[in-house]
């Protein structure tokens, strides 16, 4: 299972870098991406609930990366998500395997950059894209938890069920709260203010 997860993680990263070559990052794009990623990290540091094995519920840390994706596009959003994930390392990291590092600190936050997948012209599309992004992010955390942190599951409990409950009750809850907040934000007004990069 570890080999399969490692191969899939590497393939996803290669696909991202191939796709990234189509994006022209000028100074403005880099500054906006860095700024949104930094805001996500600052919000991540404000944790309401912190779990013993990592994770918890923070102050809408997913929101800036999702907004970045909606306002500036998928590639910029994915890049902002990757930077946010790498910034999380500054707050202490638990790395037990290279694939676990990719899953927990790169791919799970990059998934938030898919929030703009269905566009933002209609609220339903916006909410659908945000739910997709959050679902993929939580799914990546569940896979990482089951494969690399199954030893923390209570005796007799299935590791997948343990990881599901652990991650749904932390990043899943924060993700749903973020989607709810995104649904009431004036995205169309933000889009008018945000100039194309």
Secondary structure layout plus pairing:
Layout: H1 2-20, H2 27-45, E1 47-50, E2 56-58, H3 63-72, H4 74-87, H5 98-110, H6 123-148, H7 159-184, H8 187-193
Antiparallel strand pairs: 1-2
GO cellular component, one term: plasma membrane
Keywords: Membrane, Transmembrane, Transmembrane helix
InterPro entries: Thia_Transptr_ThiT
What descriptors fit this protein?
Energy-coupled thiamine transporter ThiT, thiamine transmembrane transporter activity, two-stranded antiparallel sheet, Arp2/3 complex 21 kDa subunit ARPC3, 197 residues
Give structural notes.
- Strand 1 and strand 2 form a beta hairpin.
- The protein is built from 8 helices and 2 strands, in the order ααββαααααα.
- The chain has a two-stranded antiparallel sheet.
- By secondary structure, it is mainly alpha-helical.
- The model has no long low-confidence stretch (mean pLDDT 87).
